[in-house]
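Journal club side-thread
Mid-discussion, someone asked how the predicted structure for our own chain would compare to the paper's figures. Pasting it here so we can look after the session.
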Amino acid sequence: MKYILGILIILAAVLMFMYWYAGYSSRSGFAIDENQNNVPDSWEAKMGWLFKARNFILLFLGILIGYTLSFVFQEI
């Protein structure tokens, strides 16, 4: 269960970094964002569903991390 917890934490960190970098690159002018939603247009064409479901994905990952933490602390 500790390995699953580690994988979930790493996955959440990678996704949060990707969301942050998408906003950073569009605000700094590095990437083109015509509709001003802080997602570069090239990323939005490839992975638009990932940015539309951002809140649900992070909520689901947070619930899974909390659930696995409860099992890890029961083992101690």
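Post-session note: The mean pLDDT is 92.
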